[in-house]
């Protein structure tokens, strides 16, 4: 596992397929990090759909979407499962954030968070200029960064 980008580095750009639940159903499309320039983005990497800790993490972030939106921030959940798995997971849990499918684990490698055939639970905050401003890579994936912590970090970007 390489170290990946450090705080202050330009965030590795990527494009991944993803989906977001809407009132009309599930909207599928391509998500490109560099297309978000002008707005901060929280990249929340999680090992798998429908696992207990990942479900708690993604539900927590979904519940905090208004707080993130109040800071003009977008939250993307990223894991190696495909879009069908993501859609089932999002529908079952009413998730409001887009879920991106890194099936080939290319983004996992670019961010240096690979762990054998899986990934380390990690959160990165990319600022409006595309620079990495916050990084947390879990040694053991039994905990995650709270919405309060991420909102505090995002708020600090505007000071």
What report would you give on this structure?
The chain is an alpha+beta fold. The protein has a single domain (37-157), classed as Glutaredoxin, CATH 3.40.30.10. The chain has helices at 52-63, 65-70, 83-93, 106-110, 147-157, and strands spanning 15-22, 25-32, 41-45, 74-79, 99-101, 114-115, 118-119, 122-126, 132-137. The strands form 2 sheets. It has a 7-stranded mixed sheet. A two-stranded antiparallel sheet has the order 6-7. A hairpin with a 2-residue loop joins strand 1 (15-22) and strand 2 (25-32). It starts with 14 loop residues before the first strand and ends with a helix.
The coarse overall form would be globular
**Count of distinct structural domains:** 1
The amount of beta strand, in percent, is 25-35%
- Unreliably modeled segments: none
CATH superfamily: Glutaredoxin
Task: Give me the side-by-side strand order of the main sheet.
Answer: 2-1-5-4-3-8-9
Order of helices and strands: EEEHHEHEHEEEEH
Number of helices: 5
Reported for the largest beta sheet, the result is: 7 strands, mixed
Helix content: 25-40%
Distance between the termini: 34 Å
CATH architecture, by name, is 3-Layer(aba) Sandwich
Q: If you consult CATH, what is the topology?
A: Glutaredoxin
Show the helix and strand layout.
Layout: E1 15-22, E2 25-32, E3 41-45, H1 52-63, H2 65-70, E4 74-79, H3 83-93, E5 99-101, H4 106-110, E6 114-115, E7 118-119, E8 122-126, E9 132-137, H5 147-157
Parallel strand pairs: 3-4, 4-5
Antiparallel strand pairs: 1-2, 1-5, 3-8, 6-7, 8-9
